Amino acid sequence: MAPLAIISLIWIIFVAVVPINSWFPEATRQAVSVDNLFRFMLAVGGAIIIFVEGLTLAFVVQYRRRPSDPEDAVGVQSHGNTRVEIAWSAGPALLLVILAVASLAVWGDEHSVQKDPLHLDVTGYQFGWQFSLPQYGVKNLDGVTDIMALPINRAVYVSERSPDVIHSFWVPEFRIKQDVVPGLVTHEEFTPSEIGTYRVICTEFCGVGHSGMVAKIRVVSDADFITFLRRHHATSLPPGAPSAALVGASRSVH
Amino acid sequence: MAAVLEPEQIIVGHEVHHAPANQTFLQKYLLSTDHKQVGINYMTTALIFFVVGGILAELMRVNLATPGSKFIDPTTYNEFYTMHGTTMVFLFAVPFMVGGFTNFVMPLMIGAPDVAFPRLNMLSYVLFPPGGLLLMSSFLYGAPQAGWTSYPPVSLQGPVGQSLWSLAIIVLGISSTLSAINFLVTIVNMRTRGMTLTRLPLFVWSVLATSAMVLVATPALAGGVGVLFLARTFDVPFFNVSKGGQVVLWQHMFWFYSHPAVYIMILPGFGLISEIIAVFSRRPIFGYTAIAFSSAAIALISMLVWAHHMFTSGIQPALQLYFMLATMIIAVPTGIKIFSWLGTMYQGNLRLTTPMLFALGFICTFVIGGVTGIMLASVPVDYHEHATYFLVAHLHYVLFGGSVFTIFAGLYYWWPKITGRMMNERLGKWHFWLMFISANATFFPMHALGLLGMSRRIATYAPEYAGTNLFISIASFVLAASFLIFIYNAITSLRSGPKAPPNPWGARTLDWSTESPPAPHGNFYTQPYVTTHPYDFTAPAPYFGKPQPEVELTPLDERELRRKGFRRVT
Amino acid sequence: MSTVSTPIAGHGGGQVRRNTRLSNGLLGVIFFLCSEVAIFGSLIFAYLYLRHAQPHWPPPGVEKPALALGAANAVILLSSSVWCHFAEQAIARGQQARMLFWLALTIIFGSTFVGIQAFEYHRLNTAINKDIFGATFFTLTGLHGAHVSLGVLAWLTIFILGLRGRWTKEHHFPLNGVSLYWHFVDGVWVILFTIFYIF
């Protein structure tokens, strides 16, 4: 038992200390919480695996029949131990309560109402993506040929729609996905926190073009976001933007 | 060891029914009403479909070995992964566990001469190959491509094969529901003398719980699949949004069955692992009552957690929370089982035979699958990992590392009883180690792929995943090769393996208290009775079969067998 | 440990020993009806789910079936359960003629239900694939109607066999089995009538 406890401890320390979060970019504030939650579960889960597999190995070594044992050697003929059984029922139950509470905390963060979010409309269709920013009049940006931009550190409230079949809107670096469902408007929220260009992947099988239903999305600085809006013939700009005339001053006709 | 029989115990003119002579092959085998033959029929047919499903998987892995592979076109790839999943679930795992093991073993274990309705049992089997062929025929008309989960609207768009898929599922569902009715009545009403519920072997407890799940969940699937068929064929608008339908409705109807289905595929496995670990540790199972209760608890709770497959489907937030909490609860009874198995090995006298190795390997892989399951149960983690290769890793750890390993454990364990021959132990060990190592090599890296952004159900992927995918593909070919060892072992055993004694493993359950194989119709020669629990290895093993002279092996025979890898096991 | 043992009393159906008061056949029917609960349950769930998602019910332009005729038909079906119960009681007392009388009544009432339902179908201004009301109504009542029809066929078979003197005071299990099935089918109709006609 003791060596296993030591190995588990080493594992837990490893998971806690080694910056595994950085092995894959965390591009939203929520991604950090999700990764930490996952790390916690990895630490605990890994310890459980170490114990179960370790005990299996240890018992095989310690209790295997020796050649010198008689043919009809038997093990100890007891049936159980109530105290032990209660312990290993209550212990995991307690652990699960902790995991549930930790999950609830992250879930609550992902579902909290943000002040003044950026509204992003996503349309997934067979087989591509279209994005819109209704607050600024950017309509139907074609995800195949163009790249949507989001300003850093501003909460985004995504509304997803599909005209045909179920798709799923996923940016792995954001750590959140929701299916795009015909007949419903589904939502997700996140706050981008790292500048970069990321893949948008469809993760619900939608037909023969499913593998290729990929787009890109960028997280940019506020200034670059303004530039992006101007370039896409936005009809309004975020407050505080330099008050140069809007390009064209006409509704975009993408 | 065979018990010595008192003369009074031998009934002169016993009434064990023998099958009439002059039966055709069809009557004697495929249309047999003897539960043992029905079980063999199921296992053989299911193994054939296991090979089919495996070939489909290997073809997929060839395609996935390199990014942008042109080995098969995307449509064919989609057909393959759909048919792989459907075949493995409905044509292999469920029939093997429910129709195969349960049929052969359960009546023997409770001391019954057969199941409650033998002709209904035969009908259950008779529906199985046609259902399977109906499913396979979809390849000729455009196989379904929407996954074994078959979500509309994509599944409404699919070719004719999708409708054939629906009909096949309904046929197979009827087959397994009839089996469930049969087994429930048998266990409730046909237990032999002294076989109270507290003396029921744990395999029977697990089968009782499984049959209850099959009974209640399978018809719900038939309802959903029937509606899908109507939607495709007659435009009945259950899932058509423009006419008032709801797309997510299908997911509720489908998963209400398909979540219990995964427990249907594992619970009998849990039961037989309990048997194997007790027998090869030579001590009573630790925590019998807890394990029995946990089977019932798992059966009940598993009916209430289906929407953890739907966290990203757009369901109400409050529902997401409920299903998360309910799903996490299932870990408790499952954990109880694993710890009880370890507790059984503690202070036991372990015999590391092939069935025992598969049982131990199962514990090691299943715990990994269970841990990743808890991770996926957490909604925020699932938001990221749903429908990625992390999920593919989890499901294969619990279905391959779980169900398949327990199926092999049970096959090696009951092989002597079913066939009357012994398997070769050395080949069995080779099979185990190769399969255990290659299965882990195949499925473990998939966790990383999913976390790093590889989605599932894609025929091609981004170049950064290439190295890992190539490794996985090569490991999967080794996995396939390991299965060939089993086939070779099985064939040589059937042809020329040593004859099996009634109780080679020294078990105490009634299935080992007959000849190997048991008498064709009726199983026992005298009415079995039990006076104690089924894991008492200090008492002599019961025997209620045909009286047999003790077969003494000459010293020469013994040495010959040892050289071939056999070991005497008590 | 006693050395007395008992010969096996034949296999399968001839098994005499049983662990509960109920026969294998009766248990089988009960478990079968559990599976029927599951299939009707899943379709009823589908109906309630779809209806809950609609702002108006029935959808605009669709009429629900007439309540009066539906209520009368429900009474016809439910009373047939009473008639078949009397048939069971009659044969339990060995009264062949009375059993046949009540069986005939059961068959007549059951067939009438199917006939009136067919008339209702004809009168409705929607179809199974026209709108969501039609889809759910026809699927559920259609499945139920199929069950009633199969039940009527079963009763007809039992009636004909009864004419040939097949049933006795000691052996009449199929009557009990089909009766249980029939009560179940009527119970489902109570639910369907409530959720489609009344509410």
SSE topology sketch:
The complex is a heterotrimer of chains A (254), B (570) and C (199).
Chain A: H1 2-17, H2 29-63, H3 82-110, E1 118-125, E2 128-133, E3 138-142, E4 148-151, E5 156-161, E6 167-171, E7 176-180, E8 186-190, E9 196-202, E10 214-220, H4 222-231
Parallel strand pairs in A: 1-5, 4-10
Antiparallel strand pairs in A: 1-2, 2-3, 5-8, 6-7, 6-9, 9-10
Chain B: H1 25-30, H2 35-64, H3 74-109, H4 118-137, H5 154-157, H6 160-189, H7 202-234, H8 248-264, H9 267-281, H10 288-302, H11 317-345, H12 354-377, H13 379-385, H14 389-419, H15 425-451, H16 466-496, H17 555-563
Chain C: H1 24-52, H2 67-92, H3 96-123, H4 132-163, H5 173-198
Describe the protein's architecture and organization.
- The complex is a heterotrimer of chains A (254), B (570) and C (199).
- Chain A is α+β, with helices and mostly antiparallel strands and 254 residues long.
- Chain A has helices spanning 2-17, 29-63, 82-110, 222-231; strands spanning 118-125, 128-133, 138-142, 148-151, 156-161, 167-171, 176-180, 186-190, 196-202, 214-220.
- In chain A, β1 and β2 (128-133) form a beta hairpin.
- Chain B is an all-alpha fold and 570 residues long.
- Chain B has one domain: Cytochrome c oxidase-like, subunit I domain (Cytochrome C Oxidase, Chain A, Up-down Bundle), CATH 1.20.210.10.
- In chain B, α7 packs antiparallel against α8.
- Chain B starts with 24 loop residues before the first helix and ends in a 7-residue tail after the last helix.
- Chain C has one domain (23-198): Four Helix Bundle (Hemerythrin (Met), subunit A), CATH 1.20.120.80.
- Helices cover 71% and strands 0% of the residues of chain C.
- Chain C is elongated, with a radius of gyration of 21 Å.
- The relative contact order of chain C is 0.15.
- The chains are: A alpha+beta (254), B mainly alpha (570), C mainly alpha (199).
- Chains in contact: A-B, B-C.
- At the A-B interface, α2, α3, β7 and β9 of A face α3, α10, α11, α12 and α13 of B.
